[in-house]
Amino acid sequence: MINNIAYIVACVLFIVGIKKLNKPTTARQGNRLSILGMIIAVVAVFFERGVLDTWNTTDWTQNAYIWALGAIAIGSVIGLIWAKKVKMTGMPELVAIYNGFGGLASFLVALIQSMGEPDGGFDFAIALSICLTIFTGAVTFSGSMLAFGKLSEKISGRAIVFPGQKLLNLILLLGIIGASVIFIVPDINADLNIIAILAVTAISFIFGVLIVMPIGGGDMPVVISLLNSLSGIAVAMAGFIISNTVLIVTGALVGASGIILTLIMCKAMNRSIGNLLFSGFGATDSVSGKGPGTEPKAISVEDAYAVLEAASSVVVIPGYGMAVAQAQHVVKELAQKLEANGAEVSFVVHPVAGRMPGHMNVLLAEADIPYEQLKTMDEMNPQMPTQDVAIVIGANDVVNPAAETDTSSPIYGMPIIKAHECRTVFVLKRGKGRGFSGIENDLFFMPNTLMIYGDAKATISSLAGEFTSD
User: Fold this and answer.
1) How far is CA 147 from the centre of its chain?
2) Is the Cβ–Cβ distance between 282 and 217 less than 8 Å?
């Protein structure tokens, strides 16, 4: 009875915690409530499973208390070190790893449970849950590890496609279904049962890699969200296998919220999940329609200051370049200098800016940018023609006019922030490359666009310094 009450309290804390993550002002409180819920859930499991009863067992190999606390201690230390050392530029790949580990944990629970009745003694619901958990857990782990490699640029972020790829995926999926049927059907030979579940495992790992392989860098935020959802689904099904209410509820929460976020981000890109997974976005080069030898117009910091000093309205559009340069704090400093000079400053964030959901929002919140200055794409786009200056910091696809004008572009039809409609556009960029997605940006060649090359943090700091010295 007490354990059930503890589970209910934990679930309520998880729900409230996720709700509070909806706003930067309450996100920290939401995290704390979720942490408290997890502590309550773990303690309740200890009592329910009799873990504490084994603390004085003389055989340490049978002492579940030691094993459980040891695992918690090791995981806590690793998590604490990661939390302290990871930079904001490394957050997307860290989230990918976390998604993968969540899927791996669920996978291991299901795999161990599958060995409990090798003669097919599971009822249909449990057997089906085992197969589904192994499938989703393995796909989440292998897919997340590949996403980590792409995000960290340890491997190419470009989409990788090859002839017959979709047919191979279909064959593998049919193989997973066939092996699962063999496992689920009762009274199957024990050896064949084990072979079937191992086949589901192996094919699922391969399937996870092949699903993420054809997805290019520009779609990584959506992939992270989708993999997060899959990890939650795997957790929920693992909860059915071991009859744990907290796992079912929390897994369902993560799975549902991840799917909702994925759909929101797909809508923001005007693409379906199927198109995302199977289109091979970024697999081929997309070249600009500009003539050979055409170069974007560059400008110095001093000349850019002269324009900003006379501006009455400025909109800042952050992208992954701001994260790389860790420029969020100097961006706030520049915004304050502009406001002191009489300019109205706004920030507009595209739903898929950066390399994970909410990446730019987290950075701006870290710099204590006032929440009321943050505008959505839909709020700000109608006002773009009235803005004197747009400052684009490392963003690429989310401000590319080709999405509206070039029917041959891979991003055609994707809603963008219409920076090109502002009177003057400053683009802060490290170099002349095409960015993570590999798509040429027509904005760079427009007559009202001026490039400021170099480290974004140094550039913005110099701009703020010009106001100070004025």
Assistant:
1) 10
2) yes
Q: CA dist 50 to 6, 7, 8, 156, Å?
A: 16, 16, 20, 48
Question: Structure tokens of 222?
Answer: 């959506």
pLDDT value of position 171: 93
Output the six-digit token pair for 395.
């963003």
pLDDT for residue 56 is more than 90: no
| H or E segment and range at residue 374 | strand 374-375
81: left (phi over 0), alpha (psi -120 to 50) or beta: alpha
Whether 322 contacts 430, CB under 8 Å: no
pLDDT above 60 for 119: no
Residue 449 near residue 423, CB atoms below 8 Å: no
Q: Please tell me the distance from the alpha carbon of residue 317 to that of residue 426, in angstroms, as a whole number.
A: 10
Surface-to-core class of residue 70, CB atoms within 10 Å of its CB (0-12 exposed, 13-18 middle, 19+ buried): exposed
d(CA 267, CA 281): 16
CA 141 to chain centre: 14
User: Is 455 annotated as catalytic?
Assistant: no
- Alpha carbon 243 to its chain centroid, in Å, reads 30
Query: In DSSP terms, which residues pair with 318 in a beta bridge?
Result: 393
Greater confidence (116 vs 383) lies with: 383
Residues 6+ apart with CB under 8 A from 163: none
Tokens coding 233:
């689904």
From edge to edge, which strands make up the β-sheet containing 374-375? 374-375, 344-348, 313-318, 389-393, 424-429, 449-453
The CA–CA distances, whole Å, from 461 to 89, 109, 121, 383 equal 19, 51, 67, 27
Q: What is the pLDDT averaged over residues 276-290?
A: 52
Can you say whether residue 290 is alpha, beta or left, with left for phi > 0 and alpha for psi between -120 and 50 degrees? beta
Angle, vertex CA 258, rays to CA 256 and CA 263, nearest 5? 95
> Average of pLDDT values for 54-60?
63
Closest to 187 in 3D by CA, of 114, 113, 122, 131: 122
360 has pLDDT over 90: no
What percentage of the chain carries pLDDT values higher than 70? Answer: 87
The pLDDT tens digits of the residues spanning 28-39 come to 899 899 999 989
One of 123, 303, 397, 455 is an active-site residue; which one?
397
Yes or no: say if 207 and 172 are a contact pair by the CB < 8 Å rule.
yes
